[in-house]
């Protein structure tokens, strides 16, 4: 997907990856640019591959190419999640 939006909340950064919540303004499939996709909030991870990787700051507006996967372990919100441990 090609997603445009804003980084919200704090960014977790380490030497290997950055993780952050991304509020989506618009998203389009890379295979069909005619059809918009309805998304509101994504939890994204960016894996650092070089010294020139971008620095993500809360409040920044970005257009990113993302791969979206179905969330796991949210079958019963508020209960014990065996897949997280």
Task: Describe the model.
- By secondary structure, the chain is mostly beta strands.
- The chain is built from no helices and 4 strands.
- The chain has strands spanning 2-13, 17-28, 41-47, 61-65.
- Strands 3-2-1-4 form a 4-stranded antiparallel β-sheet, with no helix packed on it.
- A hairpin with a 3-residue loop joins strand 1 (2-13) and strand 2 (17-28).
N-to-C order of helices and strands: EEEE
Q: Which percent range fits the helix content?
A: under 10%
What structural class do helix, strand and pairing data support?
mainly beta
DSSP, total strands: 4
Please identify the oligomeric state: single chain
Amino-to-carboxy terminus distance: 30 Å
| Cα-atom radius of gyration | 15 Å
Task: Count up the helices.
Answer: 0
Major β-sheet annotation: 4 strands, antiparallel
Q: Strand share of the residues?
A: 35-45%
Output mean pLDDT: 79
Q: Report the uncertain regions.
A: none
Strand order of the largest sheet: 3-2-1-4
Shape designation: globular
Question: Which key features would you list for this structure?
Answer:
four-stranded antiparallel beta sheet; 85 residues; globular; mainly beta
What topology does this entry show?
Blueprint: E1 2-13, E2 17-28, E3 41-47, E4 61-65
Antiparallel strand pairs: 1-2, 1-4, 2-3
Please provide a brief summary of the model.
This protein is mainly β. It has strands at residues 2-13, 17-28, 41-47, 61-65.
């Amino acid at each position: 997907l090609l997603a445009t939006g804003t980084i919200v909340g704090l960014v977790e950064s380490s030497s290997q990856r950055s993780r952050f919540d991304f509020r989506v303004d618009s998203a389009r499939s890379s295979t069909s640019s005619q059809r918009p996709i309805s998304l509101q909030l994504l939890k994204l991870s960016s894996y650092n591959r070089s010294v020139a990787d971008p620095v993500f700051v809360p409040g920044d507006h970005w257009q990113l190419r993302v791969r979206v996967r179905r969330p796991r372990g949210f079958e019963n919100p508020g209960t014990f999640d065996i897949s997280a441990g």
